[in-house]
Backbone:
């Protein structure tokens, strides 16, 4: 999708060329103009190797409003039924007696109803936004029999829906429940960090709409990025570290009860 | 989709499951796949007993075992193919395999086993007979057998001796291949670290021994039925030997399962609570009752009884038959408990879910 858009843009620019050339041919040298247009076209070409994306999630900032879930469904045309999610929000309630209850009604898309418990009964409670962890050692990529799911150079795990045979081995292999089978294409699907947006320099939809900036997206390897700043300032953890999937979604203030 | 179905499903879920886990992905078809390949591997290993280990008593079942293996091997990929959402792209597994994927190796293991082991062995085993038939018979059968003989006409003692040697050699290669075929199916499940019910180094070995159990019992059942249908006398020495091997294989298989069980219980990892809950609730009937009591302990007791008491042959063979049938029920539920059981708990280890669909429910 992203590629098509870029191509269209370049073609449009090239089409403008003859007209501009006609106008400016008296005062400007055509070869230089051509070169400039070419360079302009190149700027929109994303170079995978120059980026390495990740996400930071600040648990203490999430208010469980579910706007990220809604934005994700709208932006990525995710089926509305409450069993297909690229991102969702879980609510953890740790009771005074140590009992832990977790819920995520419809993925938290409509937010959460107030807790029924009395104030004294709850030890602590918090929300945990979840999404594909874009693992650096992704078990889903390992098991795909045809290589339809793969890791890009900029660190995002994607699915080629024209290639996926629908065996669902990747869904079984994902420890985080981040994958589903799209009922329309009958192929595996998951969060792409909004690849069509980030390759244009935009933020993923969930990050864009988050009212509390609980989600921080950016470059993992560039010192000036907001994500890098978060990584410097807070203690970070990843989900299920014992499985050695090497997630690139980092959580601050992550509770030990979160799985 | 059917929102009320989803809602009623949610009522039957205990604890918390990830939202995407409300849909199941591997159903009955994937249960059938390890069941069928297990029968193939088991039947072949039984056939090899006669050729390589010179167990003369089971000779009457040799060809039957080979043909059983072939028939089930031809059927083995069908449930897999039917389960794919895009079966028209299945050839990509052969053309552009992703070599790190256990599943991608299926094509190669399967092709190796079918072409180089089973078909070749069966051809050498039947070659002399096929040549004779094509000489004697008339009409279509003559032509068919001539085609199957691939133009071979030599019936000299040297040629027949060569066939024998070829069969022996192929069987030697075939035994590790059969181990590979079914051990590999176990690896497909055992290597999924995301799923604590599957992830076990013992999985390929447990699969292998349960395959041997299922193969022997299937050939016993087929031998029993086909002999009765053809109104031929049952070879009691052969049945006794089959039953003895079935008993040994059952003991090994059950021991491995118990080892796996004790190991998990003793290590008591993070997943132990949810898995215990699973075993004692959703899987209680299919695991404890059907797989262990009816499918393992039951035939074990029956077979041991025939071995340690003097029963008339007529009664013994009926007991063998019943034991073999029970074993088939048990092995099928073993496959069910692995494939379905592995999807009945959440990977959040916080809840149990219900079997909803094969993932094929249209929106």
Residues:
């Amino acid at each position: 999708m992203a590629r098509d858009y870029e191509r269209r843009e370049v073609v449009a620019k090239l089409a403008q060329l003859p007209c501009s050339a006609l106008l400016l041919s008296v005062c400007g040298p055509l070869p230089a103009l051509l070169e400039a247009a070419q360079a302009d076209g190149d700027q929109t070409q994303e170079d995978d190797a120059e980026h390495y994306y990740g996400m930071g999630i600040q648990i203490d900032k999430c208010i469980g409003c579910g706007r990220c879930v809604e934005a994700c469904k709208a932006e990525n045309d995710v089926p509305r039924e409450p069993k297909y999610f690229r991102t969702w929000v879980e609510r953890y309630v740790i009771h005074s007696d140590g009992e832990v209850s977790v819920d995520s009604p419809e993925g938290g898309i409509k937010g959460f109803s107030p807790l029924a418990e009395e104030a004294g009964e709850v030890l602590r409670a918090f929300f945990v936004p979840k999404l594909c962890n874009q693992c650096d050692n992704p078990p889903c990529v390992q098991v795909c029999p045809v290589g339809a799911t793969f890791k890009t150079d900029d660190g995002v795990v994607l699915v080629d829906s024209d290639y996926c045979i629908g065996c669902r081995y990747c869904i079984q292999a994902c420890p985080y429940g981040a994958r589903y089978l799209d009922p329309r294409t009958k192929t595996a699907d998951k969060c792409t960090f909004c690849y069509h947006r980030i390759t244009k320099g935009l933020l993923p939809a969930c990050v864009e709409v988050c009212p509390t900036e609980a989600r921080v997206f950016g470059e993992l390897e560039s010192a000036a990025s907001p994500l890098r700043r978060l990584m410097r300032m807070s203690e970070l953890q990843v989900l299920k570290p014992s499985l050695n999937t090497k997630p690139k979604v980092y959580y601050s203030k992550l509770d030990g009860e979160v799985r | 989709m059917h929102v009320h179905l989803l809602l009623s499903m949610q009522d039957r879920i205990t604890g918390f499951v990830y939202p995407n886990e409300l849909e199941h992905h591997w159903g009955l078809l994937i249960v059938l796949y390890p069941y069928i390949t297990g029968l193939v591997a088991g039947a072949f290993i039984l056939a090899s007993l006669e050729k390589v280990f010179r167990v003369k008593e089971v000779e009457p079942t040799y060809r039957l075992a080979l043909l059983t293996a072939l028939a089930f091997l031809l059927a083995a990929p069908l449930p897999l193919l039917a389960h794919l959402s895009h079966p028209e792209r299945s050839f990509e597994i052969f053309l552009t395999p992703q070599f790190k994927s256990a599943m991608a190796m299926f094509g190669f293991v399967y092709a190796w086993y079918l072409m180089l082991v089973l078909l070749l062995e069966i051809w050498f085993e039947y070659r002399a007979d096929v040549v004779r038939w094509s000489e004697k018979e008339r009409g279509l059968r003559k032509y068919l057998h001539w085609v199957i003989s691939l133009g071979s006409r030599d019936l000299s003692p040297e040629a027949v001796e060569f066939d024998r040697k070829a069969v022996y050699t192929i069987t030697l290669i075939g035994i590790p291949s059969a181990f590979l075929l079914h051990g590999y199916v176990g690896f497909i499940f055992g290597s999924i670290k995301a799923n604590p019910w599957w992830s076990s180094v013992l999985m390929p070995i447990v699969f292998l021994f349960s395959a041997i159990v299922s193969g022997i019992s299937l050939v016993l059942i087929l031998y029993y039925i086909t002999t009765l249908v053809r109104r031929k006398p049952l070879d009691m020495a052969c049945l006794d030997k089959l039953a003895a091997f079935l008993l040994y294989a059952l003991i090994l298989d059950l021991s491995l399962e118990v080892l796996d069980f004790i190991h998990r219980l003793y290590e008591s990892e993070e997943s132990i609570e949810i898995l215990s809950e699973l075993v004692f609730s959703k899987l209680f009937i299919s695991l404890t009752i059907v797989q262990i009591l009816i499918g393992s302990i039951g035939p074990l007791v029956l077979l041991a009884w025939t071995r340690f008491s003097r029963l008339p042959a007529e009664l013994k063979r009926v007991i063998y038959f019943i034991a073999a049938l029970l074993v088939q029920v048990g092995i099928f539920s073993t496959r069910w408990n692995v494939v379905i059981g592995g999807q009945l708990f959440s990977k959040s280890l916080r809840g149990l879910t219900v079997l909803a669909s094969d993932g094929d429910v249209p929106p």
Observations:
- Confidence is low (pLDDT under 50) at residues 17-33, 39-43 of chain A.
- The helical segments of chain A are 2-24, 30-44, 67-76, 139-143, 169-173, 195-198, 205-209, 226-233.
- Chain A touches chain B through 47 residues (CB under 8 Å).
- The first strand of chain A starts at residue 53 and ends at 58.
